[in-house]
Design brief:
The protein is α/β, with parallel strands linked by helices. It has one domain: Rossmann fold (3-Layer(aba) Sandwich). Helices cover 57% and strands 12% of the residues. The chain is built from eight helices and five strands, in the order βαβααβαβαααβα. Strands 2-3-1-4-5 form a five-stranded parallel sheet, sandwiched between helices. It starts with a strand and ends with a helix.
Length: 168
């Protein structure tokens, strides 16, 4: 089982990946974690972005050689390579308002937050979610189109839950 989960910010990619990883005791390749560990930050030059992508690629390559894994994250420089190796590409494509609601819940509970993420940066991240609604949508759709033969598109929370229950 090799599953990569893509989609816009705040859709629940990491939550679903974590659930799959725990249920099947398989590695969780969390691209955000590797991004933080590689020096990623919101404002980066092209050179810094390329360096971070290179570092992430070096860290995840051994994990992707495993027989089973679940990966989450939509990093344009890396995800196409991961999607090629995956058996399934899962696109979480829930509405913008649901994603804002998800982030509000994440902000309120502070559950499963990276230690690098402060409360203030999480508050400011609402603006990033709105910005990415327009800037990353094409990248996500292009990736989905490129892997249409193994794409699973989930548009509602109930669909995400049904998909999770169907694995096995």
């Amino acid at each position: 089982m090799k599953i990569t989960i893509i989609g816009p910010t705040g859709g629940g990619k990491s939550t679903l990946a974590r659930r799959i990883s725990q249920k099947f005791s398989i590695p969780h390749v969390e691209l955000d974690r590797f991004w933080f560990e590689s020096g990623g930050k919101l404002k980066q030059t092209d050179e810094e972005r390329a360096h971070v992508a290179h570092e992430i690629r070096n860290k995840i390559t051994p994990l992707l050689l495993e027989d089973n894994w679940v990966c989450d994250g939509t990093y344009a420089r890396i995800q196409p390579e991961i999607a090629k190796m995956a058996d399934q590409v899962v696109l979480i494509d829930i509405s913008f308002l649901e994603r804002i609601g998800n982030h509000f819940t994440r902000l309120r509970t502070r559950a499963d937050r990276h230690p690098e993420v402060t409360l203030l940066s999480d508050i400011l991240y609402f603006g990033e979610i709105a910005k990415r609604q327009f800037t990353s949508q094409k990248k996500v759709q292009d990736l989905a189109t490129a892997h249409a033969d193994k794409l699973v598109r989930l548009r509602r929370r109930k669909e995400i839950d049904r998909y999770f229950q169907s694995l096995g």
